[in-house]
Amino acid sequence: MKKSFIIINTFLVVFSLLLIGCQPTSPAPVGKETASLKVIAAESFLADVAQNVAGDRAKVDSLIPIGMDPHAFEPVPQDVAKIVNSSVVIINGKGIEWWLNKILTSSGGDHLVITACEGLANREPREGEKAEGEAEEEPDHDEGDPHYWLDPISMIHYVENIRDGLIKVDPDGKDVYTKNAEIYIEKLKNLDADIRKQVETIPEDKRLIVTNHESFGYFADRYGFKIIGTIVPSVSTGATPSAQQVAKLVDHIRSTGASAIFLETGTNPALAEQISKETGVKVVTDLYTHSITAADGKAPTYIDMMKYNVKIIVDTLK
Ligand SMILES: [Zn+2]
Description:
The chain has helices spanning 2-22, 31-35, 44-54, 77-84, 101-106, 152-169, 174-199, 217-223, 243-256, 270-279, 302-317, and strands at 37-41, 58-62, 88-91, 112-115, 208-211, 226-230, 260-264, 282-287. By secondary structure, it is an alpha/beta fold. It folds into two domains: 2-188, Nitrogenase molybdenum iron protein domain (Rossmann fold), CATH 3.40.50; 201-317, Rossmann fold (3-Layer(aba) Sandwich), CATH 3.40.50. The strands form two sheets. Strands 2-1-3-4 form a four-stranded parallel beta sheet, covered by helices on one side. A four-stranded parallel beta sheet has the order 6-5-7-8, sandwiched between helices. Helix 10 links the parallel strand 7 (260-264) and strand 8 (282-287). Helix 3 packs across helix 6 (152-169) and helix 6 packs antiparallel against helix 7. The model is unreliable at 1-7, 16-35 and 131-139 (pLDDT under 50). Zinc ion binds next to loops.
């Protein structure tokens, strides 16, 4: 399945490059509008964060449309063109953009790739977190857990990497990027303090979460939650649990007293509902974890996304 995808992908890359090559050369940039740096970030939350750092010196677009799952994204020829036409490509890293590697290596183009999570340490599942017999990681996600962004303190590190990358490509903007990063880091620190305050209202023995896939690890480590289990026993969304794994999760929920399963938007709730019938846990849907929403939605920025999720988690568990 994945091999055939890579072959198709390679074809798309070559085809897109031919198309781009056939187009007339664009005129030299004139004026502020066209002279500004073109930046593309893989995920929408990453684009929002990067735009805060870039300010008006660059236009940051998101490659993955709002609401789509980055674990399973399938780029089309237009996506290749977007990458080729950008001066900077920002990715989260740790293998979540496995589908992008081929494009980045074969598309050429003169762009800097910023890996936002570079330098952050991988987490190991804590004791009692993984039920026995859980699935091995898929080969595409053998780099570890990529979900650092759900921890605002790790996001500070993302901001620093993005700032340094932008300065490398656009040294004249150093002061602007440095100042913008400073302002945004302050906002992230406030967000962290706000989350801590809210989490304190949940009794310690109730800080237990069950999620769809293993996405809340860094968040849990930061704020003292325990991950009781995940429906999909993987840091990706692509795996399917066996009946035995579901049975183990049911047992684990019963023995720990976890009270809710939190699902991301776009997740099929069928299995969670089945587990809910067996255990009595509440199923909470529509957390925004891998994408922000449109401007008129509930989580149009990264900070809104975090606040929205924390409010739902706290209201459910306290
Ligand atoms: Zn994920």
